[in-house]
Amino acid sequence: MGKRGVVIALGGNAILRHRETGTAEEQAANVRRASHEIAGIVGEGYAVVITHGNGPQVGDILLKNEMAKDVLPPMPLDVCGAESQGMIGYLLQQSMQEALTAAGIGCPVATVLTQTLVAGDDPAFENPTKPIGPFYTAMQARRLQEEMGWRMVQIPRQGYRRVVPSPRPIALMEGEAILRLFLAGVIVIAAGGGGVPVVAKPGSMLRGVEAVVDKDYTAALLARLVGAIDLLILTDVERVAVNYGRPGQQDIHEMTVAEARDHLAAGQFPPGSMGPKIESAIDFLEAGGERAIIASLEQASLALSGRAGTLIHR
After folding, report:
1. Are 28 and 43 in contact (CB under 8 A)?
2. Smallest Cα–Cα separation from 240: which of 279, 290, 278?
3. For residue 287, which of 237, 210, 232, 231 has the smallest C-alpha distance?
4. For residue 281, how far is the Cα from the chain centroid?
5. pTM more than 0.85
6. Sequence ranges of the domains in the chain
7. Which residue, 79, 92, 299, is CA-closest to 190?
8. Architecture of the CATH domain 5-118+169-313
């Protein structure tokens, strides 16, 4: 192909920002901003694969299911994940094509609805950690725990969210299709929300499971699949920090895999937050990747050029 490959993982905040109501118009406007930034990266000569979170969206779909259960049959979590993957893929695909056309870049864009293979005995099914859906107050969280049996966790400085099982991804079932499109020069949007989690059954059958795969873990798998040089994880902070949200917070501009492991072991990067991003960066680098970068969406291009974000390397 000749171009430097990068997998860009968009955080849920790139599609639905904190305190927004979640209208289609809000999400489309946010996606357009993200697409404009990514189109600039394509214009710099990168071959791009895009993946994205779906936490707020799939949580909202589940809440609608719960509220309408006396009128319509509720759908399981895997089906809700597929629904959100299609919706966000549509918005991204459309806005990316518009941004590329506006920039004078002739490059096709395609979304691949992706199933992610997980192990049926993954311990995550006994220990839900993945936040999904909107933020709630402490009072709302208690009510949802009592009325719906949801497990809730507090997110520092933001509120409470529901958590669900998040098993580790093993393989992407549509991996060959994604790779062929990438090698043909297509900008591929894949594995949205980490992909729909499925387990293998006898007779080469796949079955969806009630879980959400962390999109950062899947992003590392996706990057290895296409042979990307860089993994760019975009979130709602400008840099990784130790002592985040506490006295003595210190932003990190650059760290090695060994340093990242030390911070993980010290509990600096909690599960369901920065932890999976750091672990995914380590996985990617140890599998042969050159750079893993964690940055804000607004500084994506600057981060790739080494002028923003947190760079992690071997």
Report:
1. no
2. 278
3. 231
4. 13
5. yes
6. 5-118+169-313, 129-164
7. 92
8. 3-Layer(aba) Sandwich (3.40)
Residues annotated as part of the active site: 12-13, 130, 215, 277
Is 90 exceeded by the pLDDT of residue 67?
A: no
What strands lie across the sheet with 230-235, from one edge to the other?
A: 109-112, 187-190, 46-52, 4-10, 230-235, 291-296, 310-313, 254-256
Is pLDDT of 22 > 80?
yes
How does pLDDT run across 242-260, given as a tens digit for each residue?
Answer: 999 889 899 999 999 999 9
The answer to whether residues 78 and 85 touch, using CB atoms and an 8 Å cutoff, is no
CB of 112 within 8 A of CB of 174? yes
Q: Packing angle between helix 77-102 and helix 55-67, nearest 10 degrees? A: 130
Amino acid identity of residue 136, one-letter, is Y
